[in-house]
Design brief:
alpha/beta; TIM Barrel; eight-stranded mixed β-sheet; 8 helices; 19% strand; globular
Length: 257
């Protein structure tokens, strides 16, 4: 690819050519390295370390995307996940700049933890990035501030502000929420989550995801304590009931608007 511009390299954990659960259609998925969250149920603890991974230029990633571009033509595109993509906002902006030049649908799968409305220089970068972003998949771990802190070791204040910011910027938003037995399955908090997101006109989808135990062996191999040891996987029939509670919260909020 001929381009004289110098781009910001990203620290990349891995690439996936045919992702089917990372946004609409078939996606080329970039897993970035580095995340400040410590979610008790994280199945990618090997992405936590900030200074690990392979340095890659955005042009390399677009080149790899284009090798399989026919597979992404029918409603697919490029998704950046992690780790936490917004911790590498300069790289992400350069990557999405190239993507939009090629007409590629762009999606960020994020916890929103890097958002900080009190940091003016950072907000200027966010404002620019949002002009290049078609969809944000925002994973809200818990609506209650204290329980969120206990679950992921980080506050949720700016994460919830990020949802409102996406609404102001008219960026399409999918909400993701992992249902963990005994941790995130309380009907009160699920309803509260729905009531919160129900105010946003940019809400396009809700993914209620079942907690699974497949990551436990990875923790053992990495020598990391698994905080949810012994917690059973979420029953998928119960999952549907829990998703309905969130939807009820959305409906109530919208009925009041």
């Amino acid at each position: 690819m001929e381009n004289s511009r110098k781009y910001t390299q990203g620290r990349i954990h891995s690439l996936e050519s045919f992702g089917t659960v990372d946004g609409p259609g078939t996606r080329f998925v970039v897993f970035v390295q580095g995340c400040p969250m410590r979610c008790a149920y994280c199945h990618n603890p090997d992405t936590w370390e900030m200074n690990a991974g392979t340095l890659m230029d955005p042009t390399e990633i677009i080149e790899q995307y284009e090798r399989n571009s026919p597979f992404y033509a029918n409603g697919g595109g490029l998704t950046v996940t992690g780790g936490e993509p917004l911790m590498q906002i300069d790289f992400l902006t350069d990557l999405f700049t190239l993507a939009k030049e090629k007409g590629i649908h762009t999606c960020i799968d994020t916890s929103g933890i890097a958002f900080n409305p009190d940091n003016a220089p950072l907000m200027a970068k966010f404002d620019h990035l949002m002009t290049l972003t078609d969809l944000v998949m925002l994973d809200i771990k818990h609506i209650d501030p204290q329980k969120h802190l206990e679950l992921v070791k980080q506050p949720n204040t700016n994460i919830l502000k990020f949802a409102a910011y996406l609404n102001e910027k008219n960026v399409d938003m999918w909400i993701r929420h992992v249902i963990v037995p005994g941790y995130t399955d309380d009907d009160k908090y699920l309803f509260d989550l729905g009531y919160f997101i129900g105010q946003f006109h940019n809400l396009k989808a809700l993914d209620a995801l079942p907690y699974h135990t497949m990551g436990e062996k990875k923790y053992q191999s990495l020598g990391i304590d698994y905080r949810l040891k012994g917690v059973p996987a979420m029953d998928k029939s119960v999952l549907l009931e829990k998703k309905k509670v969130i939807l009820d919260g959305i409906k109530k909020r919208r009925a009041e608007m």
